[in-house]
Amino acid sequence: MLNLINNDTFELKLLSENYGADITKNKVLMTYFNESIFFNFIIRTVKEALPLFKFGEGNPKVAIVSGVHGNELPPQIAAMFLIEKLFEMPKINGTIYVVPFASPLATKENVRRLKNRDMNRSAHIAGSTTNIIVNAFVDYGIDFVADFHSTALLSNPGYESVFCSINPNLKSKEIANFITESTGSKLISYENAGSSYSGALEDELNIMGIPAVTCEVVSENGAVSRGSINRSRIQMDAFLKLFNIIL
């Protein structure tokens, strides 16, 4: 275990050993990580299983997810830097769960789909990585979730944004409003969760009673566009600040 951890409430949870992968094969991703004990620890863990990192104790319990699409790199890098920061924090106001690589096999190959399936259309399918994550969040009593992505120009949506829905969980839109007002991202709101398509991580969580949003920054697929990592971190920080977890 990492011997530089100052936060004695840190826990590592392995959600599934079926989806571990050697993400060092993604050479674009690895240019942003050094050979520190911290990064080597994370990389070894991801190689063995689908990991969930837990920091802090108490309420609220919030979760951050990235890497649902393996070739959307900026939020995955931003999540790693966030985890590094959390390791160094002696106290956290509440509990933070982080899944930095939701589809490690797809991240390894730097591709959108895992086993020819879009994981953000599969959260309702038993055994998919996103379904495993949804079930874990229910089991751990997570209160709020933000799922972080990147979008290429001229794609859907093609601009920095935050997705939410009004029904059945109005808190989803309240979270999105705060993040968009704090970051300048655009708001994309749906009347009903799952109305556009089924199986999105955000929608399945909202339907199951856990308020969730999806945050997008602009970057080309399989690459890291200038400023996109920082923009993703700004969105993450806004989400955490909403609940006064990180001041």
Superfamily (CATH H level) name:
Zn peptidases
Tally of distinct domains:
1
CATH class: Alpha Beta
Q: Outline, from the CA principal axes? A: globular
Low-confidence stretches: 1-6
CATH topology: Aminopeptidase
Radius of gyration: 16 Å
Q: Determine the N-to-C terminus distance.
A: 28 Å
Biggest sheet, strands in spatial order?
1-2-4-3-5-8-6-7
What is the arithmetic mean of pLDDT? 94
Biggest sheet overview:
8 strands, mixed
Written account of the structure:
This protein has 247 residues and is of the alpha/beta class. The protein has a single domain, classed as Zn peptidases (Aminopeptidase, 3-Layer(aba) Sandwich). It contains 8 helices and 8 strands. It has an 8-stranded mixed sheet with strand order 1-2-4-3-5-8-6-7, with helices on both faces. Helix 6 links the parallel strand 6 and strand 7 (186-192). The radius of gyration is 16 Å and the shape is globular.
